[in-house]
Amino acid sequence: MPSRDMGVPRLGGNTFKFKEEQGDGVYSLVDESTRRNEQPSINGVEITFEDPTVYAKVQGEMVGTVSVLDLNFQWGEGTYVKMAGIAGVHTDERLRRRGIASRMMNKAKRLIVERGYSCSSVSTGSFNFARRLYRKSGYVTLFFLDDTVKQIQKPIPRPRKRRNFTLRSYEEGDEEAFVRIFQECYGGFFGPRRKTTERWKEAREETLKADPESVTVAEVDGEIQGWAEYYKHWGAFATELRVSSCKDRTAIAEALLSNLEEHLLSKGISEARFLTSPHDHFLRPFLEERGYAIRPYRVFMLSIIDLPKLITLLKPLLDRRLDKEPPWRGNIRLKTASQSCILTVSDGISLMESSQNVDLEVVTSDIELTRILSGVLDPLEAYLEASLDVKPSLTEATNTTLRKLFPLVPYFHPREDWV
What we know:
Elements: E1 10-11, E2 14-21, E3 26-31, H1 32-38, E4 46-50, E5 53-58, E6 61-76, E7 79-91, H2 100-114, E8 119-125, H3 130-136, E9 140-151, E10 165-169, H4 175-186, H5 197-210, E11 215-220, E12 223-233, E13 236-243, H6 249-266, E14 271-276, H7 283-288, E15 293-304, H8 307-313, H9 315-322, E16 330-335, E17 340-345, E18 349-352, E19 360-364, H10 366-374, H11 379-384, E20 388-391, H12 396-405
Parallel strand pairs: 7-8, 16-19
Antiparallel strand pairs: 1-2, 2-3, 4-5, 5-6, 6-7, 8-15, 9-14, 9-15, 10-11, 11-12, 12-13, 16-17, 17-18, 19-20
């Protein structure tokens, strides 16, 4: 009886392999040459662009896509940066691992440069093999986000004593308060897109039409202080819970969560899934204390395309961080193997010509600089780990200045912001 590894016979110029049928020890010969012929040829792959999508076509058949979307992205503390978002990345499974996706990503990058974006982002599953494609295309992993999940057996108990708040169903116009509460909770974070009432309604339109009770609102003295909801996102149900930093925050959250879990069960939905940030020091521990488990789920990646342009866009944010009191003044060159820029530190920040003499040179990799500018890596930590060099040597004043300009920042990229 042949073994599983039978070698590769050749008959009449064709290549054959043994294939076990249904695991019963019976083998047949499969003509590998014929199987290869079943796959579309990649000769003459055409890469085209029809705004906003890059297409790969073989003999007129569409075999791959990459979309380039315009995003208004919160860098932190109310500062927004226009960014190119990579979305809809797909290659026909018959033609994967043959370089088509890389060619589409290269075309997308050329379009991003031509359109004048300073940076580009992409988010994907934590364990998605596409991360290798994005990394090879210049995208840097900044942070991971987790699903906070529970299989609902019965709703959590409602607060024993209902204090000075009431619950009601969603009404048209409530979304203005929802945007306000979100900004209160995450306005200083890196990662969300700019929140608008239009985007909120668009994301929930299908679910609200099917179930007007999908959103529950909490009011205190007639003012909205929080809401809980479920809505359909990418073919699955997602849940959200947001509560302002008010006096009865925990009690309101308990009432909203209990009501949401009860409503989900009534709809035959037994799983609640909240996307949370490790920097949300209210929601994540609140859910964990009520039986929710943390599961790795999503990764956010960024590529800086034009460093001087990005620093120019971040100038208002950098000025606020210095607050007209820099511990050190002078010209700083930020330099990687592929990019550099010079910024002058005085009462504020200004960008200088590359030929300008510098007082301090900060040299690091593209990866480390991307993480430092995004607020997920402390410049001092990078220096201590020898992944960042400073010339002349780092002093207390220059260290303090760099850390004021580029502090650690909390991050979050909400589910509704994925593209």
